[in-house]
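In line with agreed milestones, work has continued on tokenised descriptions of protein folds. One protein thus recorded appears below exactly as we store it:

>
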Amino acid sequence: MRQGWEVGFKLIGMAPSPLRRAWASTPLRSRVTGVDADTLRRWLAGLPPPVGYGVSARPLRYRQAPHLAAFCWYDDRLIELQVPEPFRAWDEKVYYRARRKPGRRLAFQWFGRTIRFRTRREVLRFLYCHEFYHWYLREVRGGKGAAETACDRFALTYFRARNRGVDWTSVLPGYALAARRPLKPAA
């Protein structure tokens, strides 16, 4: 009888895909009730993993209404996602583009979509996509990671999509699943 793979995913008879192998070696931690590390790994499985970084999910205590909050800690090599607790569905305006208005003043016209977040899974996937793109811009592209509208465009495109057959190396130039590149020194 052939032995299956046991690290980070279910026992199966054939070798896992490179994407599953990359996620198996990514450290994950969750302090959200009802969402353990295996569930988090399963929810993020179709998305590209941040090579050299860990992913952490924790509860977000809010006062008035639920909102989105996440961080990419470059010093700690960690992407931190925060899920509103207690959780309830809510609408959030997400701005994905800005255009400068004519004139001498520095003013912009903002373009956005209202997104309804119905589940913890949707919130975690959206926040992960957004923060992953910050990681990608800084660690892979070598530039500044502060491009909010570009990160929101990436998140809007991929957080609800079925990304099973996506070749992330063609979508993200310079990105490689298993390449251990020297990470940029923390500021």
Observations:
- Strands lie at 28-30, 54-61, 69-73, 78-85, 90-100, 108-117.
- Helices lie at 18-24, 37-43, 120-140, 148-158, 168-171.
